[in-house]
Amino acid sequence: MDCIFCKIANGEIPSTTLYEDEEVRVIFDINPASVGHVLILPKTHAASLLEYPTEKLGTIFAIAQKIGNAMIQGLPCDGVNILANCREAAGQTVDHFHVHIIPRYANAPTKDAMTIESGTIEKPDFDALKEAITKAF
Ligand code: 5GP
Ligand code: ZN
Predict the structure, then answer these.
(1) Secondary structure element (H or E) that encloses residue 102, with its range
(2) Is 4 in the pocket of ligand 1 (CB under 6 A)?
(3) I want to staple 113 with a disulfide (CB 3.0 to 4.6 A). Which of 46, 73, 81, 96 is the partner?
(4) Is the per-residue pLDDT at 12 higher than 90?
(5) What is the predicted pLDDT for the residue at 91?
(6) What residues contact residue 47 under an 8 Å CB cut-off, 6+ apart?
(7) Distance between CA 17 and CA 114 in Å, rounded?
């Protein structure tokens, strides 16, 4: 399969690597949203977080936590956004699971990392939503 993040994660395409172990490679985003924006790329292909083996997700988020804390101490930055876009409708542009870690700085304008505007829809029926989602668990 011709997947650019598979090639980067497995070292076929060189990258500045912040961290690497058996499961992941962490690289700097080519088009950063802030200074220090990185991506955690698993070395095995999954289209998004939704397809990644559940039992391996803990490892990915443990790495995200470690890097987030290291960014706050080391850069330093004042906060981080840790997020994964899943599927095109959610803004995913590369179909290989990746977690963004975006350092945030108190002296920069604080915007939610999501560009979705809150408060623009009718008040939802929370009970109906709960039922629709939980029946699919
Ligand atoms: P998504 O929108 O899929 O959540 O994020 C994809 C991210 O990958 C974007 O922030 C984009 O800048 C980054 N990206 C795309 N291609 C490359 C690449 O070849 N190298 C690096 N380092 N980042 C990339
Ligand atoms: Zn891939």
Answers:
(1) strand 99-104
(2) yes
(3) 81
(4) yes
(5) 92
(6) 95, 96, 97
(7) 26
Q: Could you read off the pLDDT of 58-96 as tens digits, one per residue?
A: 999 999 999 999 999 999 999 999 999 999 999 999 999
Both tokens assigned to 45: 């292909």
Task: State the Cα–Cα distance between residues 137 and 128, nearest whole angstrom.
Answer: 15
The CA–CA distances, whole Å, from 21 to 73, 102, 122, 128 equal 22, 21, 46, 43
C-alpha distances out from residue 12 to 15, 79, 110, 133, 137, Å: 9, 33, 37, 40, 38
Its pTM stands at: 0.91
> Residue 59 is encoded by which pair of tokens?
């490892």
Q: Measured between alpha carbons, how far is 84 from 98 in angstroms, rounded to an integer?
A: 6
Ligand 1 contacts CB of residue 129 (under 6 A): no
CA distance 25 to 43: 7
CB 37 within 8 A of CB 102: yes
Q: Which atom of ligand 1 is nearest to the CA of 31?
A: 12
Strand partners, 82: 101
Task: Identify the nearest ligand to the CA of 10 by its number.
Answer: 2
